[in-house]
Specification:
The structure holds two protein chains of two kinds. Chain A is mainly α. Chain A has one domain (about 15-295): ABC transporter involved in vitamin B12 uptake, BtuC (Orthogonal Bundle), CATH 1.10.3470. Chain A has helices spanning about 5-40, 45-60, 70-90, 100-120, 145-170, 170-180, 185-190, 195-215, 225-240, 245-265, 270-285, 290-295; strands at about 135-140, 145. In chain A, helix 2 (about 45-60) crosses helix 9 and helix 3 (about 70-90) crosses helix 8. The chains are: A mainly alpha, B mainly alpha. Chains A and B meet through helix 4, helix 9 and helix 11 of A and helix 6, helix 12, helix 14 and helix 15 of B.
């Protein structure tokens, strides 16, 4: 095989796996953007909550706490994540309208507490948490496609499709869009801002947990992996402009491809440094995200 | 040039005006000065009675207090949150260690260089987000904090990898090590506090405060907001690197263990707990909180983040207490 052919041969599988993991970064980023759009708070506890949720699934399904089936463990973990998200919002509710900065600092406090809780309950162990999907795989145009890839794509499509359907079609979605455009006018019209905030925090927690559960099978689960995985989600949100939902999804896929190429061709050890560079370059050249240039205006 | 001179004249008039009411309540000011002097005298006399380990911990407290001070200065003057100041602290600490190992220079030479390097790094880092709201900067500092460990481990030849480096050279020959660690860190911390108090009264400091409080009025007076944001971040990063230099000197060792992702968050915890104060007592309180709690609660390792998180939330809520009361009474209505 000649040089160019080899590059193309490498490139296609890299792009494919980049898209697959990029979907998950996008799902993580959607959670951040939902919270930011409605309540103007950057939720730094996003990764820690997702980590706690993933550990709850592990604890309930592996026999550490209980030995339930995977599906019921996930159901319970979603409940736990939603409860913690509601509690987190209750903590910052008194100051959320007063100061974005103070609320953002408070989410760091919540993140610290959740991090401590994970370490207390599950220790510093490194565990495996697989997706219970039948294992198969096939090749298509030189790309190996596994059942994991298909599961990720399917779940992402369902979750993101569901989210956009809620935002586009339901009354709650209309309220969410209204609040993220002009909270003051909404309050004047008698809309309950708190319930919209709560909706976005719950949605954010569920999106974060889904992303964490799907990304963990590719690596492993420990008290630090999921919070640092969320850096990819933060980068995706910045690339997408931090207040655009489609931007977050597209940003996730771009970040997924870029990190995959970087770790293959340059070095996997400097991944966070690369993401830092991506964030700084994006902020400098596309302060409102990449999508604003191509699509004109935010959604 | 003329217009810029005029601008400074106007801003310094404002500074004068804001000083006047403070001078009016001289009774309280005198009391505060007395308290401060008593604290300084107390800290100066501690080595007479304290043992080696306490002196060592206190020297670390002062170094961390300076790092906390750098975060507080950023919050106060820039209204920005940084959870990545551990990067600049590490930059200062490793500058001292590497200059000793490669060039054989003591902290007397390397600390100013460390501080200058920190300022340059802060400038480069703050430049891209100069026109954006502080939230983008906070996200970027998170990436900075997460990138730090892999940079320290990646450049193993310079940084010593996982093991880190030792610092052995004395600053003042002939004085015992614990004593010079204690007094040098205390002296630098005191000097920076004095300098910040002076900065608060200077036209430049007033300009930064105005840019934060009234951006439009500041723009109208010729203060460029993006420039104000970059300069306070540069200043803050320079202080953080100086703190790192002191930390390396007072602990005699640098390693990636002391610069994990959470150490940047802890600096913010220290700053919030000290109510973002820029005075010596506030800085020492913040530094002591993040230094002594992990030392004395070493058995309760996993409870430390929970305690820090609770403190962070409690102080943040209490600092906005006025709003809290209204929130509760809103509920009753």
């Amino acid at each position: 095989m000649n040089g160019a052919g080899r590059i193309v041969g490498d490139l296609m599988p890299l792009m494919w796996s980049g898209i697959v993991s990029g979907c998950l970064y996008g799902v993580g980023a959607l959670g951040l953007v939902m919270v930011f759009k409605s309540s103007r708070v950057v939720n730094f506890s996003h990764g820690n909550l997702a980590c706690l949720g993933a550990f709850v699934v592990y604890g309930l399904s592996s026999g550490t706490l209980m030995s339930l089936s995977w599906a019921s463990a996930v159901g319970l973990a979603l409940g736990v994540a939603a409860a913690v998200a509601a509690l987190s919002y209750a903590v910052i509710a008194p100051i959320v309208f007063k100061s974005d900065l103070a609320s953002t600092i408070a989410t760091l406090g919540i993140g610290l507490i959740l991090q401590g809780a994970v370490q207390l309950l599950f220790g510093a162990d490194i565990v495996n948490l697989d997706l219970p999907v039948p294992r198969f795989g096939f090749s298509l145009a030189g790309i190996r496609i596994s059942s994991y890839d298909l599961a990720v794509l399917a779940i992402t499509l369902i979750v993101v499709g569901g989210l956009f359907a809620i935002i586009e079609r339901t009354k709650l979605g209309v309220a969410f869009r209204a609040v993220s455009t002009n909270p003051f006018a909404c309050e004047v019209c008698g809309l309950n801002l708190r319930s919209v905030h709560l909706f976005s925090w719950l949605a954010g927690a569920i999106l974060g947990l889904v992303a964490a559960l799907l990304i963990v099978p590719t690596t492993f689960l420990s008290s630090t992996t999921v919070p640092s995985f969320m850096l990819q989600a933060f980068t995706a949100a910045v690339v997408g402009g931090f207040s655009s939902l489609p931007g977050a999804a597209v940003g996730g896929i771009l970040v997924g491809i870029a990190t995959n190429l970087f770790s293959f061709y340059v070095s996997p050890e400097f991944m966070n440094t690369f993401l830092l560079a991506v964030i700084l370059l994006t902020l400098n050249f596309f302060p409102n995200g990449l999508l604003e240039q191509t699509m004109g205006g935010r959604v | 040039m003329v217009s810029s001179n005029r601008r400074w004249a106007v801003v310094s008039e404002l500074a004068q005006a804001s000083n006047r009411p403070i001078a009016g309540q001289s009774g309280r000011t005198d009391l505060m000065w007395l308290g401060l002097l008593a604290l300084v005298a107390l800290l100066m006399l501690v080595p007479l009675i304290a043992g080696g380990f306490l002196l060592y911990s206190l020297a670390l407290c002062f170094a961390n207090a300076l790092a906390v001070l750098s975060v507080s200065a950023l919050v106060r003057y820039g209204g920005e949150v940084s959870i990545g100041h551990s990067f600049f602290v590490a930059l200062g600490a490793y500058t001292v260690a590497i200059m000793e190992h490669q060039l054989g220079l003591s902290v007397l030479v390397s600390a100013p260089i460390a501080s200058a390097l920190g300022g340059v790094a802060g400038f480069v880092f703050a430049f891209p987000s100069r026109r954006l709201s502080g939230i983008y900067l906070a996200v970027a500092t998170m990436a900075l904090a997460l990138a730090l460990p892999e940079i320290l481990i990646g450049f193993e030849k310079l940084t010593g990898g996982f093991q880190g480096l030792y610092i052995a050279l004395d600053l003042i020959p002939g004085v015992s090590k614990p004593l010079q660690r204690y007094y040098v860190t205390l002296a630098v911390l005191g000097l920076v506090c004095l300098a910040l108090a002076q900065f608060r009264r200077s036209p430049q400091g007033m300009a930064l405060l105005m840019a934060r409080a009234q951006p439009r009025a500041a723009e109208a007076m010729g203060i460029t907001i993006s420039w104000a944001r970059i300069s306070i971040f540069t200043l803050s990063a320079a202080i953080a690197s100086l703190a790192g230099a002191l930390l390396a000197f007072s602990s005699s060792t640098v390693s990636p263990n002391s610069f994990s992702f959470w150490s940047g968050v802890f600096l913010l915890v220290g700053s919030v707990v000290s109510l973002n104060g820029l005075s010596l007592p506030a800085a020492v309180a913040g530094g002591a909180f993040i230094t002594l709690v992990p030392t004395y609660l070493a058995n309760a390792g996993d409870w430390v983040p929970i305690l820090y998180g609770t403190a962070l939330i409690a102080v943040t809520l209490a600092a906005n207490a006025g709003h809290l009361v209204r929130f509760v009474s809103d509920r009753r209505r």
